[in-house]
């Protein structure tokens, strides 16, 4: 190998990995903004300033690119586990104070994209299963008072959280979109807490 | 009538219904892009290549055209008008008690379907306009305390209502899906009321 090639070698992988990252970032942006159906490989390639063939080369089909784009930055179970020691009376505040900043982060964009596309498609069962099997099963029993209400309490919490996702990130309603994460938490926290531990006469 | 005309007849109504559909599609595009306030009947007519009088003939007022565009089972302005005499302190309960049964009705299904596809696509501006131009503009001033909070109070209300649409009709979470409309109203009503007239220290 020539000295010339030798010098270039360390640079090549780094350049390639930058490009890969850039493609993924553009894909996240476009999927989050336009959803899965209306985002083409061609559009992602254009945004990243590369040939569509390179996008295919790195990520395969659009579905595979999407799968890569939504890779959850944090394991949901880790979040749930991190609240194991939070008293139930504080969960209404704790939950959004952990989750909203995550959604606000760049990594959170993948989740928004997923939710959007799943909401429209036939794979809506993925979110349902996530909410019913993961969230309600883990947190429900902790707020199961009166007996049998745990699951539904958590579902009302989920409904408000999903509503914030839609209003803040998908519809981008102003001023909800520009509030700080803390302002969102302060505003919805007491309502989530009521769902978790308040009197819900309608459900008994 | 000649055999010729006889054969053509079944085609004529189809032509009219094509025009109707084209007008509605153009209206959707324009409402989504420019919002309700900045879209005129004249602009919709121009985009569809028809006379404004024809748009009025098919769809009535701009508000009614908008209602058709979002497949609302009832003109939203009529719902809002029906709450004009409801004291602000009762709106949190009144609002869902009017809206949830509508969503539950067969006519509501078209609206849910539209919402679903709008959430996923690039025409998300249609819902944004509905919430910002119609709901926040009409109800916001009634709950504007402290000054400047009216719009955002209504947006938090909207976030919870949208969350119910997602949980109950799109994700079909059980048991939220099987609750009666009254149970939904009893459960979310106090939370909506807090958004409308409660202390929201995070926002001041």
Automatic annotation (TrEMBL), chains A, B:
<protein>
    <submittedName>
        <fullName>TetR family transcriptional regulator</fullName>
    </submittedName>
</protein>
<dbReference type="InterPro" id="IPR041678">
    <property type="entry name" value="TetR_C_16"/>
</dbReference>
<dbReference type="InterPro" id="IPR036271">
    <property type="entry name" value="Tet_transcr_reg_TetR-rel_C_sf"/>
</dbReference>
<dbReference type="GO" id="GO:0003700">
    <property type="term" value="F:DNA-binding transcription factor activity"/>
</dbReference>
<dbReference type="Pfam" id="PF00440">
    <property type="entry name" value="TetR_N"/>
</dbReference>
<dbReference type="InterPro" id="IPR009057">
    <property type="entry name" value="Homeodomain-like_sf"/>
</dbReference>
<feature type="DNA-binding region" description="H-T-H motif">
    <location>
        <begin position="40"/>
        <end position="59"/>
    </location>
</feature>
<feature type="domain" description="HTH tetR-type">
    <location>
        <begin position="17"/>
        <end position="77"/>
    </location>
</feature>
<keyword id="KW-0238">DNA-binding</keyword>
<dbReference type="GO" id="GO:0000976">
    <property type="term" value="F:transcription cis-regulatory region binding"/>
</dbReference>
<dbReference type="InterPro" id="IPR001647">
    <property type="entry name" value="HTH_TetR"/>
</dbReference>
<dbReference type="InterPro" id="IPR050109">
    <property type="entry name" value="HTH-type_TetR-like_transc_reg"/>
</dbReference>
<dbReference type="Pfam" id="PF17920">
    <property type="entry name" value="TetR_C_16"/>
</dbReference>
